Amino acid sequence: MRRVVVVGYGMAGARFADEVLRRDPSVALTVLGEERHPAYNRVLLSSVVAGSMTADSVRLHGKDWAADHGVDLRLGVTVTGIDRARRVVLIDGEEEVPYDALVLATGARSWIPPTDGLRKPDGSLAPGVVSFRSMEDCEQIIDAALPGTPVAVLGGGLLGLEAARGLAGRGCLVTVVHPVGHLMERQLDAGAGRVLARSLGELGIEFRLGALAVEYVAGDGLVLDDGSRVPAELVVVSAGVRAATEIASDAGIAVDKGVLVDDALRTDDPRVHAIGDCAQHVGTVSGLVQPAWEQAAVLADRLTGVAPAARYRGTSVVTRLKARDIDLAALGDVHVDLDCPDHEVLCFQDPARGRYAKLVLRDDFVMGAILIGAPDAAAAITQLYDRGLAAPTDRLALLLGRALTPEVASSPADLPASAVMCKCNTVSKGQLVTAYRGGATSVSSLVEATRATTGCGGCKDAVCGLVDWLNRADGRSSGDVGSAA
Amino acid sequence: MTLTDGQVSPREFPTNRGGLCQKGWTSAALLTSPARLTTPLIRRCGVLEPATWDEALDLVATTLGELRAEHGPDSVGVFGGGGLTNEKAYALGKFARVALATSQVDYNGRFCMSSAAAGGTRAFGLDRGMPFPVEDLGKADTILLVGSNPAETMPPFVQHLRRSNLVVVDPRRTATAELATLHLQPAPGTDLALALGLLHVVVADGHLDKDYLAERTTGFDEAWQVVAGWWPERVERVTGVSVADQRVAVQLLADAENAYVLTGRGTEQHASGSDAVSAWINLALSLGLPGTRGSGYGCLTGQGNGQGGREHGQKADQLPGYRKIDDPAARAHVGGVWGVDPDDLPGPGRSAYELLDALGTPTGPKALLVFGSNVVVSAPRSDHVADRLADLDLLVVADLVLSETAALADVVFPVTQWAEESGTMTNLEGRILLRQRAVEPPEGVRSDLDVLRGLAIRLGQPEERFPVEPEDVFTELRRASAGGAADYSGATYDRLASGEALYWPVLGPGSSPRMFLDRFAHPDGLARFIPVDHRGPAEPPDAEYPVQLTTGRVLQHYQSGAQTRNVPELNDAVPEAYVEVHPDTAARAGLAEGALAAVVSRRGRMEARVRCVASMRIDLLFLPFHFAGSGRANLLTNPALDPTSRMPEFKVCAVRLEPA
């Protein structure tokens, strides 16, 4: 039987195992996990910090998952080497696990900036400093995040802001320190960054932008490069991640920023594959769940033989900030100027209400967008982008969503004669007027003559209004308006 | 409604509150329509010609007898309808199992209610569309209506929705969506993902009813493992429904003292329709709605007798009383009532589309009897279905007009319609209604019950086994259903005629307007969360077929349109097929309002007039399915089947739009 060994039991490794079992439950599957507990959904850790999810509720697998599916799951083990010639993985320096196919899903680790004091001399994090990557990190953050606690978040990227929003929700006094002049600079332009900072500011978060932390003093806080101080009893480091590639490079597998893979998700050893945050596909180390899950599906297709020709062609990235009361989506290339000749760029800014919408089109197709505080537009434009659809010509409606409602005729006089007033019985304004002229001048007689209002009754007000209008035009008093059937 | 001198007038009744739509007002026109069949027809030299009843019945019985002798009982198939009365549905199933001894019987309700039935049965142990009276809806604070457009399909029903916050889930901005407090407009075929997302929000926003979960349900943890992976931002990307709207929808449900989740065909007619229903029920369970006074889950029935039609044994896998045909106790009971050896009853047969797909093939039936259904218009991939019918040795159709399917038949029986016969129907609430005969049928027309008896006697059955009087059939149905899930044993024509409101099960003097208040119908009394995941449409769009098609009804027509297209007032209002499309999508295809367009799928091509509708998604077309010939929407639809309910994927397929 074919032996498939997965190194890593995070979102990519667990998903890959699920995808394999779904296709072929008979595959001999071994999963090696570094952490001691079952796989959990890392995407939801910011919800755990925010308090809307518990550790239990973000588990990907129940505790009986491995037994139920006949998976050889080892938790709390360290892979110490791969012997590719003998096709074995060495764990904890002693045991050998043989494979026919090996899948590296080792993920990534938090990058800790070289700020003085963040690490202890032995390399571990100093007291009061925690990265934001694992469930343990989360638990540590929550334990320290009592209301009123001053917290510094190092890094104003997506995850840093999600952590900051969650901590502010817990009543902490949060300051985000970010070395660039505006937030989320990978996804946002400066204008959007400003609107975002303003909106988050209204939720009680402070920002030190374009500032570098030069020193951490335990129990006191951060010293910035301009000499100012940020008080902090807790420093949450969210300054980016680095792919965990050591196992691969030690085994002589080609590595750049991540483990290099082709469209078949193979490394330069055809028996060794890599997926998720540790993998580098066509120059990209994604660090996002969507590509990891798509890669897991493709690789499962291939390794189970369900679709040996399956290939991964990359994933279009849509960034979505998960922060209560802030609606932010960013996708594609947004760093295009308004006057760029071969693009069409639309922009709407309303910082006072926390709205910013920028849409970059080329030949009617969405190239990029930033949408803050515009949930309708975010949802609609994401669909156009993902599905490769040409944008509707009514650009304004697209950008503003349902804010733009169609005009409603204010008086029966404004309706065309063909307008259907009673949908249930297909009665037009023209038919009602004709019946009125024919002598049915009260609501009840109009109802009898045309059956209008006798279905769902939803047009009763409109029909009464019409009779009023006709009565006024005729100089009659509005007789039995209220007596509609 | 009542009928006096050929004029229809509405009746004050809870479901419609005295309202009628145009279909109701004009329904008397069908009684005297010139299109009405009044004599049996037999195809001679390729042409349908008038014949006597004896000629027609003899011919059919003789041919069926020969086929059975040569090829066995499964060489004859029977296809019923959800519009048949309970008595007819019951008699048809009995006729198939006893007189023909065939397992090959199913009905068009498979295309209608089967996913809802499967989902309801899985969750609650029993499927009664609405396990509460419809008036209860009027007191709800919030109603979530998924994939249903009652403002067009059942206008008087809308009165029950007016007081509530109405959340409508529909890919189109329908007349019903116009009435909504909140309209969620998911991409077609993604509503299952939306249901998962809403449940995720229920948990994330702290609305999970943990006491209810502990006392009344089981299986939440397994269901949650899937749902946890559907956080709202991911759901937005798949469905196009914004995170903000997902949260508002859940808030409206959670804030409500009384709330309902109701599903319709829009979410059920998919190859993953049963799972979609389970996902919506899971949502309702997470909020503690089902089996709680003033709240609940229900499905909206599509045909006149959509509920009763699925209870009395015209389904391939069922016996009367909503019993399973492979259950030995059920077989023993029903065999006893029918006076036959239970071992002689056939087992489960093919589901509706599989049955149609097998017709005239070496292993499939060689003859088909159709009652109350117009399959060449209403079945998916309808050109293929017409080909299958053409390969039959014998096609027999009982109908009141020469429907498109009847026009292909070898023998046509003209049968009675609504006001010309008595019988019971079971409405969307599980309430049994008695419809009394109001007018004499035209000369030459017989009831379906009469046709079945005529055939049964000629096939060697004792006369008394197939009574013609509806009340006699109902009396037998009551015995056959006794002890089953849908137990009618305590219901009588006398009680019904006296106006008593009887909701099944009706065992003794009472009835059951509200079910599940104490316990659900599973042996342990608990409702089940079913772990389901989103799969997406069976046929995603691609470069060749870049837009998606969904189908549905318009107010003026009913089902295949065989009846309503014969009512001048209705036909004048909506005379021909049309396609709703976003104006930009029409323009990009080189089409303007009113132009004749061709819509093409892998299965066929149809033609329809362009109607530009600015609220349509840019990648979506809508076709009503009521029209015949080249206007048939079902020439295009995808017969991919739900693995549980065998429901075809009517509601989404990939197509392209071009000038005709």
From TrEMBL, chain A:
Residues 318-382 form the NADH-rubredoxin oxidoreductase C-terminal domain. Its cofactor is FAD. One of its GO terms (molecular function) is oxidoreductase activity. Pfam families: Fer2_BFD, Pyr_redox_2, Rubredoxin_C. Residues 420-465 form the BFD-like [2Fe-2S]-binding domain. Gene3D superfamilies: 3.30.390.30, BFD-like [2Fe-2S]-binding domain (1.10.10.1100), FAD/NAD(P)-binding domain (3.50.50.60). It comes from Umezawaea endophytica. SUPFAM superfamilies: FAD/NAD(P)-binding domain. Residues 3-296 form the FAD/NAD(P)-binding domain. This is FAD-dependent oxidoreductase. It comes from the Bacteria. Keywords: FAD, Flavoprotein. The keyword RNA-binding does not apply.
UniProtKB/TrEMBL annotation, chain B:
GO terms for cellular component: membrane. It comes from the Bacteria. SUPFAM superfamilies: ADC-like (SSF50692), Formate dehydrogenase/DMSO reductase, domains 1-3 (SSF53706). Keywords: Iron, Iron-sulfur, Metal-binding. Signal peptide: none annotated. Residues 36-456 form the Molybdopterin oxidoreductase domain. GO terms for molecular function: iron-sulfur cluster binding; metal ion binding; molybdopterin cofactor binding; NADH dehydrogenase activity. GO terms for biological process: respiratory electron transport chain. Residues 548-654 form the Molybdopterin dinucleotide-binding domain. Transmembrane segments: none annotated. This is Molybdopterin oxidoreductase family protein. It comes from Umezawaea endophytica.
